[in-house]
């Protein structure tokens, strides 16, 4: 009595009695039960959701990305499944989507969309910034070929969200080590700055790797690091940072440290100043995006301040 099961099926097979089911198990979804007292992790909830579909659904979305190894997926997310059903319980999202056999694989005993199909769905159904972070995480854990994703976009031409997917897919970079790093990289790109490279190794005078920075512009020796909560709670990491940053400066690197509380405008301004000080002429990048409220590109903002 330690596994998640379909109630009526387990009773019919003699695995448990109706009394034992009521006494020792609790419902997760309709007719799907887990042992009482068991903490359900994401895999457990995903497995239970698949059982709820009578083993007919295929897991997709964030749960699928987690099964493929992507990090930073919370245990309590809604489990997305491709299945033909209308009424869904809380905690499950059913998508009525076409799905070919070559878009399905099996992970840990559960039918799940392939990495390419998972990327196809993530890029279509999530807001742009979230989509990039999740696609970065999937690419980091289980590299997929972007051309395969584009082939699916062609296969399902006209499907919901394909235009959004095509917008974000060229920006995917498996070098991002966290969701905030993905958002920071996108902030720089949308501001009209050159596209930063991720995970840049900086060598000391003896050719040894002194530090690998989150992202930056190697040509200009400008780097940007996102300091998350671990930098504040990990004393050893904090001390290591204090010791290595002056050495990076001696090697000619300007390393900008970004925290959650920084304002986006200030982050862009700092990067613009650092790049200009190293010779960036402002003409190395495509025009910035203007979706949503209009944000002037970094170069325009710089000229406005200069003329004022």
UniProtKB/TrEMBL annotation:
<feature type="region of interest" description="Disordered">
    <location>
        <begin position="286"/>
        <end position="308"/>
    </location>
</feature>
<protein>
    <recommendedName>
        <fullName>Cullin, a subunit of E3 ubiquitin ligase</fullName>
    </recommendedName>
</protein>
């Amino acid at each position: 009595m330690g596994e998640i099961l379909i109630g009526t099926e387990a009773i019919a097979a003699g695995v448990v009695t109706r009394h034992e089911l009521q006494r020792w198990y609790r419902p997760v979804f309709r007719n799907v039960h887990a042992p009482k007292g068991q903490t359900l992790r994401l895999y457990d909830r995903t497995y239970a959701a698949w059982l709820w579909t009578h083993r007919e659904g295929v897991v997709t979305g964030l749960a699928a990305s987690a099964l493929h190894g992507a990090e930073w997926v919370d245990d309590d997310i809604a489990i997305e499944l491709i299945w033909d059903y209308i009424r869904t319980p809380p905690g499950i999202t059913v998508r009525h989507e076409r799905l070919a056999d070559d878009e399905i694989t099996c992970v840990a005993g559960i039918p799940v969309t392939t990495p390419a199909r998972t990327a196809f769905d993530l890029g279509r159904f999530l807001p742009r910034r979230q989509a990039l972070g999740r696609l970065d995480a999937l690419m980091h854990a289980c590299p997929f070929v972007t051309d395969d994703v584009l082939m699916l976009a062609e296969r399902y031409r006209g499907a919901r969200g394909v235009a959004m997917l095509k917008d974000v897919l060229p920006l995917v970079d498996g070098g991002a080590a966290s969701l905030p790093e993905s958002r920071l990289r996108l902030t720089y790109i949308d501001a009209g700055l050159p596209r930063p490279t991720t995970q840049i190794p900086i060598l000391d005078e003896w050719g040894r790797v002194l530090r690998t920075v989150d992202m930056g512009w190697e040509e200009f020796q400008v780097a940007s690091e996102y300091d998350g909560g671990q930098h504040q709670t990990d004393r050893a990491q904090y001390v290591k940072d204090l010791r290595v940053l002056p050495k990076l400066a001696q090697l000619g690197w300007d390393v900008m440290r970004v925290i959650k509380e920084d304002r986006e405008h200030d982050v862009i301004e700092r990067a613009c100043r650092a790049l200009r000080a190293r010779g960036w002429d402002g003409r190395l990048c495509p025009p910035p995006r203007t979706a949503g409220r209009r944000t002037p590109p970094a170069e325009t903002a710089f000229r406005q301040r200069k003329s004022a």
